[in-house]
Write a structure and sequence with these properties.
The structure holds two protein chains of two kinds. By secondary structure, chain A is α/β, with parallel strands linked by helices. Chain A contains nine helices and 17 strands. In chain B, about 40% of the residues lie in helices and about 15% in strands. The chains are: A alpha/beta, B alpha/beta.
Chain lengths: ~325, ~260
């Protein structure tokens, strides 16, 4: 079988590579930037495998396609299956009720149950616990995929090889805007903090009508705080307002976050199609796999499987555009 | 229907463009409801054109665009944002929003009048987001505004018309001025009520964008504003304390 070339070594490219390699395909990965790093938005992801929580503000495929993510990642990297806790201040209880109506897979928890799960959440008396959800460390997960591919003698190349390829799979994310006119960027800003005084063991989401926040523990007192969602394609800097909102939300969760060190500030744009759902689109001999939006680690396994099915079995999953004329394929 | 700075709208529904689950759903909400005006916030999307993709999506909706100064707290900020909006959307329309209170997002009406004066002099057609205060309304008109947009309730609260008495008084006080209830609408019945008071339009965002099915809610809102407007024109009956039988009683022994 001829060589398949994958462009891009972010979460999309590496999961596609992993899936194709596992099915015996001969592949190469090309990324001029080399190994995964801060040049790609996967680096800044939250790494929450939270299909139920994400379903609150997303369409049904996110729930269905995201459900398999945990099982996929468990085989390849360390996954913490501790669930997600969603909390709200008393004044924002309508937001908690709305959240509970818009999704499933949770138990309602009161203050004592919240403190039993996370002792460092003082002052929260109502919440939702999504026991089946999980999280991972995105950077470690990317490194693990790279290492596993290397064991199969697949390495990330900065330049394409001279071998003839029949199929190119374009997983360049936002960079593929040159070929995908309906792809846009959605700005996200995040912080990494070290807060030795706070112990949280699972992702916590704080609901707020204007500034919802999530915080994901990375272990050893390190926390990822995210993430803004702004219809902007500026990937250069965080605004003072966003920084203030992220930090004040963390402070509301536990005032001890006020003592935290700010280790990193991350800013990038997520690649998204108009319905914020991922797609597989054939243009000539190139197959585009893109539009993971804020669901990179959650939906990449389903996207990768869809690519593998299309390339190896010519089977079109629902992610393939051509069976969906309603999608703008400009 | 009264004209908004010379523009007669096809219908009285103005929708915001924030908080939808996706641009595709936003687009469908406009298409399915037929709303005639889209308000769009510039402030958070950045001044350097980084929001172009989203803005061109808004332009492609094919409705009147009413840019707003949401998130501005001072006259200076609002004026800068208005100028940016005029450049991007090529319209003199600006929804002037100056927030005075963090929790209630109540308009800062003193700065509002000041900003309206500056912007009108700069050639803008200002749609001021204000309270239901008559005197503030007068000052805004004196500043050059030809539209008033009193709140129904705080932004995003979904509480409906908190003060129908004052909104009715406003309608009576300014019979020739186009009036829009802006903010606080949670249900179609609230929107219908505003139109029944003789208002010229309603402007809402959260109640549609954050509904479980935004497209269905947008359609419901359109049905409501059309019903309310029609009812206002139809000259509704006066409420009364006693029953008034709708069938004739002549010939019946009712004096028993």
């Amino acid at each position: 079988m001829s060589l398949i070339r994958i462009l891009g070594a972010g979460v999309a490219g590496l999961t596609v590579a992993t899936e194709l390699a596992a099915r015996g395909a001969s592949i190469e990965i090309v990324d001029p930037a080399g190994s995964p790093g801060e040049h790609g938005c996967s680096w800044w992801a939250g790494g929450m495998l939270a299909p139920f929580c994400e379903f609150e503000n997303a369409e049904e495929p996110v729930l269905r396609l995201g459900r398999g993510a945990k099982a996929w990642w468990v085989q390849r990297t360390e996954v913490t299956a501790a669930g997600t806790l969603v909390v709200a201040r008393p004044r924002d209880l309508p937001d908690l009720r709305r959240f509970s109506r818009r999704t499933e897979g949770f138990e309602t928890v009161d203050g004592s149950r919240i403190r039993a799960l996370e002792p460092d959440l003082p002052g929260f008396e109502s919440g939702l616990f999504f026991e089946s959800e999980a999280h991972l460390s995105p950077r470690q997960a990317l490194r693990d995929l790279v290492a596993q591919l290397a064991e199969q003698d697949v390495h990330i190349q900065r330049q394409p090889s001279d071998f003839a390829v029949e199929t190119t799979i374009d997983c360049r994310g936002y960079a593929a805007r040159d070929a995908l006119s309906d792809l846009r960027g959605v700005k996200g800003e995040m912080l990494v903090l070290r807060a030795s005084d706070v112990t949280l063991t699972r992702p916590v989401r704080l609901l707020h009508p204007r500034v919802p926040l999530y915080i994901v523990p990375r272990g050893e007192g390190i926390y990822m705080l995210g993430a803004t969602m702004i219809e902007s394609e500026d990937r250069s800097r965080i605004s003072a307002r966003s920084m203030m909102e992220l930090l004040s939300a963390a402070y509301a969760l536990n005032p001890a976050f006020g003592e935290a060190e700010v280790l990193e500030i991350g800013v990038d744009v997520r690649p998204a199609f108009p319905d914020n759902l991922p797609r597989i689109r054939r243009i000539g001999s190139t197959i585009h796999a893109n539009g993971l939006y804020r669901h990179g680690f959650l939906l990449a396994p389903a996207l990768a499987e869809g690519v593998a099915e299309l390339v190896l079995n010519n089977y079109r999953t629902e992610l393939v555009d051509e069976d969906h004329p309603e999608r703008r394929t400009a | 229907m009264r004209a908004f700075y010379g523009t007669t709208l096809a219908n009285p529904l103005m929708l915001g463009t924030a908080q939808y689950p996706s641009p595709a759903i936003l687009e469908a909400a406009f298409r399915e409801s037929g709303a005639s005006v889209a308000t769009v916030s510039l402030r958070r999307e950045g001044a350097d054109g980084a929001g172009q993709t989203f803005w061109s999506m808004i332009r492609d909706l094919g409705v009147h665009v009413l840019p707003n100064t949401a998130g501005c707290h001072t006259v200076k900020e609002a004026v800068t944002t208005a100028h940016m909006a005029r450049e991007i959307f090529d319209t003199p329309w600006i929804k002037l929003e100056l927030i005075g209170h963090t929790d209630s997002l109540q308009p800062e009406v003193f700065q509002l009048v000041e900003a309206a004066t500056v912007l009108t002099e700069d050639g803008f057609q200002v749609f001021p987001y204000t309270t239901e205060d008559l005197i503030v309304g007068e000052r805004l008109l004196a500043a050059g505004c030809e539209v008033l947009m009193p709140w129904g309730a705080p932004i995003g609260s979904g509480r409906g018309l908190n003060n129908p008495y004052a909104l009715r008084a406003m309608r009576a006080e300014f019979p020739d001025v186009p009036l829009v209830v802006d903010a606080g609408i949670g249900l179609p019945s609230h929107a219908a009520q505003a139109m029944e008071l003789g208002y010229d339009a309603v402007l809402l965002n959260t109640s549609v964008a954050r509904a479980g099915d935004p497209v269905a809610m947008a359609r419901a809102m359109m049905g409501a504003v059309e019903a309310g407007a029609l009812a206002y024109q139809a000259d509704p009956i006066e409420a009364r304390d006693m029953a008034e039988a709708s069938t004739p009683v002549i010939g019946k022994a009712f004096l028993t």
